[in-house]
Amino acid sequence: MSDQTPTLDDMNARSREVFRRVVEGYLETGVPVGSRTLTQSLSEQVSAATIRSVMQDLEQLGLIGSPHISAGRIPTQQGLRMFVDGILEVGDLDGGDREKIDQTLGSNDSDVGTLLDRVGSALSGVTRGASLVFTPKHEEAPIKHVEFVSLAADRALVVLVFADGHVENRLFTPPPGQTPSSMREATNFINSVAEGRTLSELGVAIAHEVKSRRLEIDVLARELIDSGAAMWENKGESAERLIVRGHGNLISDEDHKDLDRIRTLFDDLERKRDIADFLELTDTGEGVRIFIGSENKLFSLTGSSLVVSPYMNADRKIVGAVGVIGPTRLNYGRIVPIVDYTAQLVGKLISDRG
Predict the structure, then answer these.
(1) Which positions fall inside the Heat-inducible transcription repressor HrcA C-terminal domain (predicted)?
(2) Any idea which architecture 95-136+240-352 has in CATH?
């Protein structure tokens, strides 16, 4: 293999066509492509021996490889990356795919969680792959109401109701000696400054109000507010939620030899390993990004590909992402417009819901 990363400019017209046919044939069938098959599809008449010579050159460049002795060739991860970046032709979204997505997401349900569950089901159904939906951070969603609930002398619950209908319950340790009166006072005080503010904005507002109105607030209520506000910071935790749908689509009758790989992928997803970095993969700008194999550390052990696009709220801020996982031989030309359209549609629906 060459020490330098090859480019399309390193290949002549014949080499580029052979490379393209190998990749497209593999993506379509999932099996290695041999020289005999290529002699029947190339635009110019060349011998199988000539094609084998070209394939050897491509193999030396690290763009294709042979999984077995005397077998045909398949693209390497490096070859797939070159194909995706320089050769892949992405068409318009198929009308049938668009209709299925529109139908699934066409509900008037105001709950964002339910909406995003449907997004995952729609994506996995249309693409026949596994879908990922990364939900918005509710730290950035406006708050509608806050409630403190006493569970025991040393345990309390703060209930956060967001403007988009999402509800979160967070446990924390209240100050000793709390009373029903201090609970009510703390709840009333926070709600007087909470509505319309995000959690981060609310934290700042509470600190300012407590400082300026310290004498007006009961000591127990003030300590309860401080304890609850510390819990809202959610330190060391991720408020995002990852929705995975269509696990079974990754396993077919031919994939039994890859069951260990699939199980590793499922385990990674269930444990949400490196999920905190998932959204950051998309934050360099709008549009679909494709991660092949080890390019995405979440799937580095499984050889899977991820096609992902961020979606934005009404303020043009990235708040989540949608994507499709599958084997590296995904039909990228079809999947890319599906993911792109779904991300734009989700962004619009999120914005419409405030």
Answers:
(1) 115-336
(2) 2-Layer Sandwich (3.30)
Run of H or E residues at 161: strand 155-162
Look up the CATH number of domain 8-86. 1.10.10.10
pTM over 0.85: no
Domain boundaries, the chain: 8-86, 95-136+240-352, 139-232
CATH topology of domain 139-232: Enolase-like; domain 1 (3.30.390)
What b/e readout covers 94-113, taking b as 16+ CB neighbours within 10 angstroms? eeebbebbeebbeeeeeebe
Beta strands in 186-317 (DSSP E): 242-245, 289-292, 304-312
Cα(300)–Cα(171) distance, rounded to whole angstroms? 35
Q: Which residues contact 53 (CB under 8 A, 6 or more apart)?
A: none
SS3 208: helix
CA distances from 188 to 144, 148, 163, 177, 191 (A): 13, 10, 18, 19, 5
Phi and psi at residue 130, in whole multiples of 5°?
-95, 140
Could you tell me the sign of the dihedral formed by the alpha carbons of 218, 220, 221, 227, in that order?
positive
- For residues 318 and 280, the answer to whether their CB atoms sit within 8 Å is no
Write out pLDDT tens, residues 205-248.
888 877 777 767 777 777 777 777 666 655 434 445 677 777 77
